[in-house]
């Protein structure tokens, strides 16, 4: 199944190999072929494709590294489709929170998915594709929130909404200061890259920009503010109200 092709198309970006050395062109082609062979039932097998591009540092290689890592952590085309459906679901009180939840990584486990999301994010930033940076940043943040174990059901957005809101509140209290600061730094980056474009996803980007406008100078506070806003609450500097 062409998982990497689907994922890259979802970001609106195809890999072009202009300017790559012959060896890199071959390795990128091998990585893409490897990804094409990954079964939909076992997306974690995508990790086997990373070795082909690991030593390369071009934009094209980083686009593939980003896609390989995210796919191996469980970010499938189906998840992205359901995330965008949730963003347009008027029956949900907080559409953005469900969109956010569906981007979390859960392979090999929810905790392991967070580790992979952390590994993926720098490659996605180096890809210089703002859509990839946006998805990877949200995936990393969502995976932090869900890593302790949260039921995310693609077929039940209402239950997922309730579960992710509880998890967001818990993370504000139990995630470390470093994790919250990292979340805030990620949110600040998204606000100044993908979300500054008028064609960006304004639902989640509105939450991102509101968090940064409130506490952009303090990344830990910005991280907490973002988690409050996803719950349809306001961060008062101490807690969600």
Helix content: 55-70%
Q: Any idea what the radius of gyration is? A: 17 Å
**H/E element string?**
HHHHHHHHHHH
Low-confidence stretches: none
The count of DSSP E runs of length 2 or more, i.e. the number of strands, is 0
| Structural classification | mainly alpha
Query: Could you say which overall geometry the principal axes of the C-alpha atoms support?
Result: globular
Task: Tell me the number of structural domains.
Answer: 2
Number of helices: 11
Give a short account of the largest sheet: none
Assembly state (oligomeric): single chain
**Distance N terminus to C terminus?**
45 Å
The percentage of residues in β strands lies in under 5%
Overall residue-averaged pLDDT value:
91
Structure commentary:
With 241 residues, the chain is an all-alpha fold. It has two domains: 1-72, no CATH class; 78-241, no CATH class. The protein is 63% helix and 0% strand. It has eleven helices and no strands. The protein has helices spanning 3-10, 22-36, 59-72, 77-87, 95-102, 110-127, 130-146, 157-174, 177-192, 202-215, 219-230. Helix 4 packs antiparallel against helix 5 (95-102), helix 5 packs across helix 8 and helix 6 (110-127) packs antiparallel against helix 7 (130-146). It is globular and about 55 Å long. The model has no long low-confidence stretch (mean pLDDT 91).
């Amino acid at each position: 199944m062409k998982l990497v092709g689907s994922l890259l198309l979802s970001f609106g970006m195809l890999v072009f190999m202009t300017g790559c050395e012959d060896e890199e062109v071959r390795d990128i082609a091998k990585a893409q072929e490897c990804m094409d062979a990954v079964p939909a039932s076992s997306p974690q097998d995508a990790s086997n494709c990373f070795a082909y591009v690991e030593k390369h540092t071009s934009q094209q290689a980083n686009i593939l590294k980003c896609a390989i890592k995210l796919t191996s952590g469980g970010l499938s085309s189906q998840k992205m489709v359901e995330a965008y459906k949730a963003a347009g679901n008027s029956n949900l009180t907080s559409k953005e929170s469900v969109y956010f939840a569906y981007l979390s990584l859960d392979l090999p486990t929810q905790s392991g998915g967070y580790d992979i999301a952390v590994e993926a994010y720098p490659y996605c930033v180096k890809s210089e594709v703002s859509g990839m940076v946006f998805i990877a940043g949200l995936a990393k943040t969502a995976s932090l929130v869900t890593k302790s174990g949260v039921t995310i059901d693609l077929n039940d957005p209402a239950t997922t909404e309730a579960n992710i809101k509880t998890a967001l509140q818990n993370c504000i209290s139990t995630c470390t200061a470093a994790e919250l600061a990292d979340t805030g730094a990620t949110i600040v980056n998204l606000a100044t890259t993908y979300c500054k474009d008028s064609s960006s996803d304004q639902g989640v980007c509105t939450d991102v920009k509101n968090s940064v406008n409130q506490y952009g100078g303090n990344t830990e506070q910005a991280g907490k503010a973002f988690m409050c806003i996803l719950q349809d609450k306001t961060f008062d500097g101490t807690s969600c109200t």
